[in-house]
What we know:
2 copies of one chain form a homodimer.
Chain A: E1 4-11, E2 15-17, H1 33-41, E3 42-48, H2 49-58, E4 74-77, E5 90-93, H3 96-108, E6 112-116, H4 118-126, E7 132-138, E8 140-141, E9 146-147, E10 157-165, E11 171-177
Parallel strand pairs in A: 1-6, 1-7, 3-4, 3-6, 4-5
Antiparallel strand pairs in A: 2-9, 7-11, 10-11
Amino acid sequence: MSKVIWHITMSLDGFISGPDDSMDWAFDRDHSRIADETMNEIRAIVGGRRWYEVAQAKFDGIEGVYGGAWNGPVFVVTHNAPKVTTDPRVTFVPDGIGKALAAAKAEAKGGAVAIFGANVAQQSLALGLVDEIVVHIAPVLLGEGVRLFGGPLAKRIELERRAVDYSGETTDLIFRVKR
Amino acid sequence: MSKVIWHITMSLDGFISGPDDSMDWAFDRDHSRIADETMNEIRAIVGGRRWYEVAQAKFDGIEGVYGGAWNGPVFVVTHNAPKVTTDPRVTFVPDGIGKALAAAKAEAKGGAVAIFGANVAQQSLALGLVDEIVVHIAPVLLGEGVRLFGGPLAKRIELERRAVDYSGETTDLIFRVKR
């Protein structure tokens, strides 16, 4: 059974991107054991349309995922799929996060599925579809930007810490989502 | 020279209190080495009016500070000091956070000063008056409440991690504020 991991970097004050989708604060940080182990576990990625567009605009598209180390499948949840798909690794899924996760799990063949982007992660959490949160906490307060969590779907969710790593500049935590 | 420490417990998603000022998620957690060491360093506390009122309403006032272990001075920044002060340990400071911190430092006699409450902490950060952030990250997503950081004064602030402790249920981090 594929594990679903929300894999995210955030500022200490809980932003996953800064003003204007800036991510400069999140990069140029050292890699860590947990980051590498998580990357190696993941066999498919599910992202939101907004995540995909920001990736296209700012980070060489999915070429830039995991610093260029990713060449597996990516499922993008969107009601408005682009008419032309230029990358055979990208599948646009029009009918919601549940279907996208199911398709990603089938592709992952027992490996883990990563969720990218605040919106799909919040939907997945609300639906009880997230097994783990792997979070890299960057040593910065941003003050504004896109929040890790919140919005109309947010509800209290209890977590259980499973691992801590501080070998790099970020503080890396693995939490199990309690159900 | 007294060190100024913003000492705070937050949820993983960056809330320092939940809906209706709830703090139940932050208590009943194990104590940790960093929590104890920080408490032992602190010789005076500066809090905001809102922090003070919530403490009065919900936590036996300053009797409840540090789980009852605190019996030092508390400086409350407020433009509307109550007419009757019932606790000789509490001083109301009407003329701003700078004056309150100066009074607390004088009282701390070289020991550390803790800042409690989001509002005064944000003002202090904006004025460059915070030396360290000691944060206890509770294993919960709250989704709503009072944010750690944000609002009109928020600006990007770089931090340097100094210590990590995960002996208890919270993950405890000490950051130096870069200037």
